[in-house]
UniProtKB/TrEMBL annotation:
Keywords: Signal. This is Lysozyme inhibitor LprI N-terminal domain-containing protein. Residues 1-28 form the signal peptide.
Length: 105
């Protein structure tokens, strides 16, 4: 229940400030792998709440691209099995980039 509330709040917040990827809202698109979805939700909350507006576009574009890639990998049965480890590794790299902004997740 708490994660649903957090995810819903993150979506509402991002919509309010106008984060979009492509033609639709990227936040509404889950990967389908819990590790990946948790990372993306935490990343987006950090970007929308702690990263200065002057840097948000860059970080938002990065996560939109990552979401697209991960969704593609999740749809392929051959790569889906490895996706949790991929999300963990790539997520850790991206997480380090947010540390200067006070993000800890």
């Amino acid at each position: 229940m708490r994660m649903t509330f957090i995810r819903t709040s993150a979506v509402a917040m991002a919509l309010a400030i106008g984060l979009h990827a492509g033609g639709g809202t990227a936040l509404a698109q889950e990967i389908g792998i819990p590790e990946c979805d948790r990372f993306i939700t935490s990343y987006e909350v950090c970007v929308t709440t702690k990263v200065p507006a002057t840097h948000r576009v860059t970080f938002s574009q990065q996560v939109a691209q990552l979401r697209t890639t991960w969704r593609s990998l999740a749809q392929d049965p051959q790569t889906r099995q490895q996706l949790e480890a991929i999300c963990r590794t790539q997520g850790e790299q991206m997480r380090r980039g947010l540390e200067p902004f006070g993000c800890a997740f």
